[in-house]
Amino acid sequence: MQYDLGKKALLVTYPNKFSILEARSLAETAGYHIVGEEFQKNLTRSRFGVGKGKAETIKEAVAQRNADIILFDEVLKPSQQYNLARLCKVDVIDREKMILEIFTTHAVTNESRIQVKLAQLKYDIVRVKEKTRSAKLGEQPGFYGLGKYDADIHILDIKRRTSILLKKLKQEEKKRELHRIQRLVQDTPLIALTGYTSAGKTTLFNLLVEEKKDTSPNVFTTLTTYTRSLHIKEKKFLLTDTIGFISKLPPYMIQAFRSTLSELNYANLILLILDFSEDVQGIRKKLISSIKILSALQIPISKCILVLNKVDMVLNTEIEDKLSQLRSFVSINHMVPISASNNYNVQSLKNLILDESFSN
Ligand SMILES: Nc1nc2c(ncn2[C@@H]2O[C@H](COP(=O)(O)OP(=O)(O)OP(=O)(O)O)[C@@H](O)[C@H]2O)c(=O)[nH]1
Ligand SMILES: [Mg+2]
After folding, report:
1. How many A from CA of 13 to the centre of ligand 1?
2. Domain at 188-359, CATH homologous superfamily
3. CB of 115 closer than 6 A to ligand 1?
4. Using CB atoms within 10 A as the burial measure, which of 128, 164, 170, 174 is most buried?
């Protein structure tokens, strides 16, 4: 029997473990079947993203592996995308497009669907603008057959659709605001889970509030914010699960998901979850980029408890060493190693939540 494994893709990414694992996960979550991989240190060269020699190697690999598509783990300009596609005779999808494809299939609420559409329009407008620029310069007239008039109409249309969607998004935000006001009236502290995609946020959410939301090793399993009541001893909290972070997320996408992430702004306490089973370098990278995103949202790190999840996968002898290495490069008051799937040390986390919320 034939199984549909998705399009056969050749993955082009950076030659380090962190990029490779993340790119594979992105590609698989977007539904591609990886048939080959090529690695290159620089994916931002002007003509093809890679140099001419590497572009030829990619072309050969595509033919050899019979790939239908190239997944390029970097943001490409339309001209680079076109050059590489023409050389290799297959479509090229860049990192941004891959992320958009995943968002499109995972968005389930009104709000996240609007956000995804807005991000898609943003992606399109950048490309239409570059096409008209290149057309004016007389570059690649065949490909950029779009006349100035057509392009202007296209841009106007994108702007019109954007403003309609922004109005709809405002309405959704108003609904969210109402919930917030209700919460304030009830005076219930809000705790938000945040961190990299696949760190185990939803697994911890499910454990704490006895839910059954989807969890999986794929990236971006959760695209929608959920809030549930949480009781620790006699005290009532609200717990929110949010969309995960990913490295090199273009700023406009953070912008697009701002209203979902804005839950974080209203949280009294933030549980920043990291996968403690990764090596210290990987954890450090993710921690730094999480802190960057939080500061872009004007959230002070002092509001965070660092939750080091998946400690069941770390050797006992390594735990202390890893903890002290982490302490040496970030000054966060509280770090708690836990295992959300094994319910290990989760009680310490709950005690800390109680202490923190009373001290605030
Ligand atoms: N070994 C181990 N695996 C865990 C633990 N917690 C979660 N996982 C696994 O890690 C994977 C990701 O978990 P999720 O809870 O879906 O992660 P998430 O942070 O919600 O991910 P996104 O929704 O994609 O942002 C799943 O396969 C979980 O089973 C843990 O404590 N130990
Ligand atoms: Mg999740």
Report:
1. 24
2. P-loop containing nucleotide triphosphate hydrolases (3.40.50.300)
3. no
4. 128
* Cβ-based burial of 358 (10 A; exposed 0-12, middle 13-18, buried ≥19): exposed
Question: Which residue, chain included where needed, has tokens 């108003």?
Answer: 174
| Closest ligand 1 atom to Cα of 243 | 25
Instruction: Please indicate whether residue 169, judged by its CB atom, sits closer than 6 Å to ligand 1.
Output: no
- pTM for the full predicted model: 0.83
- The angle at the Cα of 219, spanning 112 to 348, to the nearest 5 degrees, equals 95
DSSP secondary structure letter of residue 243: P
Q: Is the CB of 206 under 6 A from ligand 1?
A: no
Nearest CA residue ID for atom 1, ligand 1: 310
Nearest CA to ligand 1 atom 8: 200
Ligand 1 in reach of 120 Cβ (< 6 A): no
- Tokens standing for 253? 């996408």
Best CA proximity match to 231, nearest among 270, 181, 179, 188: 188
Amino acid at 45: R
Domains 8-102 and 188-359 share a fold: yes
Distance from Cα 350 to the centre of ligand 2, integer Å: 20
Q: Does domain 8-102 have CATH number 3.30.365.10?
A: no
pLDDT in tens, the chain (360 residues): 344 567 999 999 999 988 898 899 899 888 999 999 999 999 999 999 999 999 999 999 999 999 999 999 999 988 899 999 999 999 999 999 998 888 888 777 788 889 889 989 988 888 888 877 766 666 554 444 556 677 788 899 999 999 999 999 899 888 887 777 777 767 889 999 999 989 999 999 999 999 999 898 888 888 777 889 999 998 999 999 988 888 777 767 776 666 667 778 888 999 999 999 999 998 998 898 888 888 888 888 889 999 999 999 999 999 999 999 998 888 777 999 999 999 999 999 999 999 887 565
Q: How far is the CA of 153 from the centre of ligand 1 (A)?
A: 45
Protein residues with C-beta less than 5 angstroms from the ion ligand 2: 201-202, 221-222
